[in-house]
Amino acid sequence: MEGHYLTHVKDQKDLGITILEDLKPSKHIQAIMRKASQRIGMIKRCFTNRSPTVFRQLYCGLVRLILETNSPVWNPWLKKDINFWIRCNDNVIM
To answer: Do residues 55 and 46 lie in contact, with contact meaning Cβ atoms separated by under 8 Å?
Structure first.
């Protein structure tokens, strides 16, 4: 491009989504699930009332928002990402 070379990068974050050079969203999925797990931990530490109704409202307001943002783009299709997703979701139940 007019004598300028583009630099090679391993991953790039664009519009809030991290994509690796092989176009797999693994790094982004790990970041999203880590953020969701942190919020779930915060809910468990900060709120003593763990009735299903209250927890559902907190989960929908604080966690599900993170999981659903740009979800069509980073929806996991690799087995390791799906297993990671399942392990993190099992943490919600406990």
So the answer is: no
